[in-house]
Amino acid sequence: MSKLFKVQPQVLKPKAGKVYINMSYTYNGGTVIGGVWYDGYECPPPIVPDGYELTDYMGGGWGFDFNSKPPTAMQLLSKRNYLQN
């Protein structure tokens, strides 16, 4: 059973553009946070403002930052087009 550090959900601001989303991650050898050993991070989905949506911005692994704590993934926050399905 993994011991994961639980992160609070991110609350995104209603501004279109690139955003970095916390992502759940389990390290091969674990990590130390505040002097306590954990297997990794558990991050819930972000809270997206009404009228906006997140879309994948990267391809082939670009946009990941595994050195940040917790690791992040680049996404695109854009206004939702209600005329398009």
Write up what this structure looks like.
The chain is an all-beta fold and 85 residues long. The chain has one domain (4-79). It has strands spanning 4-6, 17-22, 25-33, 36-42, 52-56, 64-65, 72-79. The strands form two sheets. Strands 2, 5, 6 and 7 form a four-stranded antiparallel β-sheet that branches. A three-stranded mixed β-sheet has the order 1-4-3, with no helix packed on it. A hairpin with a 6-residue loop joins β6 and β7 (72-79). The chain is elongated and about 50 Å long. The termini are far apart.
Concise description?
With 85 residues, the chain is mostly beta strands.
SS class? mainly beta
Overall geometric form: elongated
Q: For the record, give the distance between the C-alpha atoms at the N and C termini, rounded to a whole number.
A: 41 Å
SS element count, helices? 0
Helix-strand string: EEEEEEE
Whole-number average pLDDT? 86
> Biggest β-sheet, characterized?
4 strands, antiparallel
- What's the Cα radius of gyration? 15 Å
Classify the helix fraction into a percent range: under 10%
Q: Which runs of at least 5 residues are low in confidence (pLDDT < 50)? A: none
SSE arrangement:
Blueprint: E1 4-6, E2 17-22, E3 25-33, E4 36-42, E5 52-56, E6 64-65, E7 72-79
Parallel strand pairs: 1-4
Antiparallel strand pairs: 2-7, 3-4, 5-7, 6-7
Features:
7 strands, 3-stranded mixed beta sheet, 85 residues, elongated, 4-stranded antiparallel beta sheet, single chain, 47% strand, mainly beta
